[in-house]
Amino acid sequence: QIDDIVKAVGNCSYNQLVEKIISCKQSDNSELVSEGFVAEQFLNNTATQLTYHGLCELTSTVQEGELCVFFQNNHFSTMTKYKGLLYLLVTDQGFLTEEKVVWESLHNVDGDGNFCDSEFHLRPPSDPETVYRGQQDQIDQDYLMALSLQQEQQSQEINWEQIPEGISDLELAKKLQEEEDRRASQYYQEQEQAAAAAASAATQAQQSQPAQASPSSGRQSGNSERKRKEPREDKEKEKEKNSCVIL
C-alpha cells in the first residue's frame, strides 16, 4: 500500500534488510540514503518482527487444527489454529506454576494475547508479576545461551580458510563429523585420566594411613594382663592369713 516502503524493503529478509540499511547510509547517492532511512523506519515500526499483513497471511495459510513452527524475534514457537484464531504454545519459565495456562492467542502484532487452557478456554494467569519476572529470566537465560553458543563456535578448531571452495556437502559433512569425533574422543580421554588420577590418589592415601589396633585386640590384651596379675594377688593374701603378728 505504501510504494516507498515496498521499494525500500522489497523481498529482503531481516538480516538482508539490516545490511541494506547500512550500505545505503554509507552511499553518496541521496536516493539510496533516503531509501535506507525509509527501511530503517520500517524496522522501528515493526520491532516485533510481525506486521498485520503478515498476521493476515498466517491466518489464511494455516489450516484448522494444523501444528506448525512460528519463528519470531529469534524464538521458535509451536503454533496452531482453532476456530479461525491462531494460538502459540506457552513455554515461558514464568508459567511453570500455571498449570491451566497452555496457549496464548496471536491476534495482534503487539504480543499481548489472551491466555487459554488446553481446551482454548480463557484462563488468565494468577500472578502477572510472577509471569513478568519469569519472562525476564527467560530472556536472560536465552542471552547467556546465545553467548555460550557463540563462544563454542569461535573455539572450534576448524580452519575454514583452508577448506577448498569446490568441496561438496558430503565431504564437508565428513570433515565436520571427524572434528566432532576427535573432540569427543579427547573429552572421554580427559575424563578417564581424571578418574584414574583420583583412584590412584585414594589408594595412596589408604596405604599411608597407619594401622590402628582394633578394640577387640585391646580388650584381649587387657584380659591377659588381669589374668597374669590375679594369681600373684591370691598368693599374697594366703601368705598374710598364715602369718602371725607378735605384739
Write up what this structure looks like:
This protein has 247 residues and is of the alpha+beta class. Among the domains are: 1-47, no CATH class; 55-116, no CATH class; 126-155. Helices cover 57% and strands 10% of the residues. It has a five-stranded antiparallel β-sheet with strand order 1-2-3-4-5, with no helix packed on it. β2 (75-82) and β3 (85-89) form a beta hairpin. α1 (3-9) crosses α3 (30-45) and α2 (14-25) runs antiparallel to α3. The longest helix has 40 residues, at 169-208. It is extended, with a radius of gyration of 40 Å. The model has no long low-confidence stretch (mean pLDDT 77). It holds the Pfam family MINDY_DUB. GO terms for molecular function: cysteine-type deubiquitinase activity; histone deubiquitinase activity; K48-linked deubiquitinase activity; K48-linked polyubiquitin modification-dependent protein binding. This is Ubiquitin carboxyl-terminal hydrolase.
TL;DR of this structure?
The chain is an alpha+beta fold and 247 residues long. The protein has helices at 3-9, 14-25, 30-45, 52-61, 128-154, 169-208, 215-242; strands at residues 67-72, 75-82, 85-89, 103-105, 115-116. Among the domains are: 1-47, no CATH class; 55-116, no CATH class; 126-155.
Task: Set down the secondary structure blueprint.
Layout: H1 3-9, H2 14-25, H3 30-45, H4 52-61, E1 67-72, E2 75-82, E3 85-89, E4 103-105, E5 115-116, H5 128-154, H6 169-208, H7 215-242
